[in-house]
Specification:
The chain is mostly helical and 236 residues long. It folds into 2 domains: 2-60, ATP12-like; 83-235, ATP12-like fold (Orthogonal Bundle), CATH 1.10.3580.10. The chain has helices at 44-55, 67-79, 83-91, 107-128, 145-156, 160-173, 176-183, 189-196, 198-207, 211-235, and strands spanning 13-18, 21-26, 29-30, 101-102, 135-136. The strands form 2 sheets. Strands 1-2-3 form a 3-stranded antiparallel sheet. A two-stranded parallel sheet has the order 4-5. The longest helix is centred in the last third of the chain and has 25 residues, at 211-235. The protein is globular.
Length: 236
């Protein structure tokens, strides 16, 4: 679509009211999603933040600097059209959730994992009535079917907009529990990223940082932060 060309060809950016939702107009013309659907946002706060991303572009449009726009487009183009698949893919993380697998080779790391991760597993057990089993090592263990079903329903209960953010955060964290805790306000985005990369941080303390690993962690942390901001703006 024309609005996503690499070179910026617009001057003004404005939020426009559209029958109970909000659009973004560039030089008076409403923008659409990559699939050509009207980019209509459910909250004024989110619309203003998306508009700010467009306004902040320089002579060329860089989608990597527009995480809220990308999430909004995904909600309309992907989640609304393939909701069942997104629910299934996101809830499936609970079966092998990161927080349930503790280090076998290092008591120090295992202790750090237990202190950092166990409180959130206990939170999920109390909040949802969905306890998960913990193991040592990387071999997959079976989780209680009742717990998995409950957590799936928690994912399914999110509307398309919140499901978009929850799915993005879950994939970036490698943990549905971390993403749900962030979505519920139990932890913030910074804590979610720190807990998601606890193992990597421990290894870097011992062996030093790897530039590529650091880049990947920063990108994932940015995804988590964007998802958290998206959720907050939806509720504003």
């Amino acid at each position: 679509m024309s609005e996503f060309r690499k070179r910026r060809r617009y001057g003004s950016v404005a939020v426009v009211s559209c029958e109970g939702s909000y659009g973004i107009a560039l030089d008076g013309k409403e923008i659409a999603t990559p699939q050509g659907q009207p980019l209509r946002l459910p909250s004024l706060a989110l619309a203003e933040a998306v508009a700010a991303e467009w306004q902040a572009q320089g002579s060329h449009i860089d989608p990597s600097t527009m995480p809220l726009t990308r999430l909004a487009g995904s909600a309309i183009d992907v989640v609304a059209r393939a909701r069942a698949a997104i629910v299934e893919r996101t809830s499936a993380y609970a079966a092998t959730d990161l927080l349930c697998y503790r280090a076998a080779e290092s008591q120090a790391l295992a202790g750090r994992q237990r202190a950092s991760w166990q409180p959130l597993l206990e939170w999920a057990a109390q909040r949802y009535g969905a306890p998960l089993e913990v193991t040592t090592g990387i071999l997959a263990i079976a989780q209680p079917e009742t717990s998995l079903a409950i957590l799936r329903r928690a994912v399914e209960a999110a509307d398309d907009w919140r499901l978009t953010a929850l799915a993005a955060a879950t994939a970036a964290c490698g943990s549905l529990i971390l993403a749900l805790a962030m979505a519920e306000g139990e932890i913030d985005a910074e804590a979610a990223a720190r807990l998601a990369f606890l193992d990597e941080s421990y290894q870097s303390e011992r062996w030093g940082e790897d530039a590529e690993a650091l880049r990947k962690r920063a990108a994932a942390a940015a995804e988590i932060a964007a998802a958290a901001r998206f959720l907050a703006l939806l509720a504003a």
